[in-house]
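Summary of Year 1 activities. Much of the first year was spent building the evaluation harness for sequence design. The harness presents a backbone, in tokenized form, and records the residue chosen at every position. We chose the following record to illustrate the format because it has been used consistently in internal testing since the harness was completed.
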């Protein structure tokens, strides 16, 4: 089972405490996969269509718990050769349809339908808890989240650009900065930062998934930190080895061309120690001197030896 499916199964088990939260969550589900239809007698009925069993189960639970309405359930197999099925939940009884539509703020008290119900009615999300529930319903139907072992990516894909903007505003109320991109016929609201995906899972109360993602993040951060440290140390060792090799080359050139007798005592002692201890650090060389000096002092003397060797090469025409 994918990480995204596990998140949705956890959400399906969540039970909103207040009726207003249940209404907000169901409103999100109905906007994304519900329709108002008419039968042969021109009587309105409600139908929710989904290919996701989890969404069908949560829709049934919310309808029963919140409205106590009669529900017909139909299972469709569109291809006899395929195991894929879709589910339809239908509310036909007139008083049940009116009850649900009024609760979802799609129908006014006078029986008139509220304009474009493909928008979030602000009366449904006045409370913070209802905003959480609404985002939970939206993600349950149209959301997905990538396995954090592979990448950090959470998205909700909807058909309406205006609806995507409203969802973005709801998320912004919790301090999350989602972005919107068009992909074919969809407007995709997405988050790519691990910390903000954690925040979103916390908002919709997917706490088990949140802990799983946090564990992955911690392991990744430790691994990346170790890799950075190893790379840094490897680079430093490489620089040290390269510098030591260059120093030894300069010292041997001087030894061959002019000997050490012409070097000042301090330079001669450093040069001899470098030849005797090619793998030692500058700090270690400094401690071996007759009069110990620090790392910077040893480095200064070796640089001076390097300049003398360079001048001698120029004089002898040995520069390649």
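For this record, the design step produced the sequence shown next.
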């Amino acid at each position: 089972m994918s990480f995204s499916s596990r998140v949705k199964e956890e959400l399906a088990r969540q039970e909103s405490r207040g009726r207003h939260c249940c209404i907000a969550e169901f409103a999100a589900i109905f906007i994304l996969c519900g329709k108002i239809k008419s039968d042969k007698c021109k009587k309105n009925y409600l139908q929710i269509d989904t290919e996701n069993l989890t969404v069908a189960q949560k829709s049934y639970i919310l309808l029963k718990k919140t409205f106590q309405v009669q529900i017909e359930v139909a299972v469709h197999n569109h291809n006899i050769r395929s195991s894929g099925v879709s589910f339809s939940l239908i509310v036909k009884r007139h008083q049940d349809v009116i009850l649900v539509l009024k609760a979802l703020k799609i129908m006014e008290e006078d029986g008139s339908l509220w304009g474009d119900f493909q928008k979030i009615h602000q009366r449904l999300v006045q409370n913070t808890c209802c905003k959480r529930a609404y985002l939970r319903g939206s993600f349950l139907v149209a959301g997905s989240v990538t396995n954090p072992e592979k990448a950090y990516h959470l998205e909700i894909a909807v058909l309406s650009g205006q609806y995507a903007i409203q969802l973005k505003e709801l998320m912004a109320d919790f301090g999350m900065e989602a972005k919107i991109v068009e992909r074919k016929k969809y407007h995709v609201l997405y988050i790519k930062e691990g910390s903000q995906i954690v925040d979103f899972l916390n908002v919709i109360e997917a706490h088990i998934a949140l802990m799983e993602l946090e564990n992955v993040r911690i392991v990744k951060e430790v691994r990346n930190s170790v890799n950075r440290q190893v790379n840094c140390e490897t680079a430093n060792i490489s620089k040290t080895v390269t510098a030591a090799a260059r120093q030894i080359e300069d010292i041997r050139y001087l030894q061959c061309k002019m000997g050490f007798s012409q070097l000042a005592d301090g330079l001669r002692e450093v040069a001899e120690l470098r030849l005797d201890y090619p793998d030692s650090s500058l700090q270690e060389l400094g401690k071996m001197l007759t009069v110990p000096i620090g790392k910077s002092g040893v480095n200064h003397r070796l640089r001076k030896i390097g300049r003398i060797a360079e001048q001698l090469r120029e004089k002898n025409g040995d520069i390649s």
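The first strand starts at residue 34 and ends at 38. Quantitative recovery figures across the full test set are reported in Table 2.
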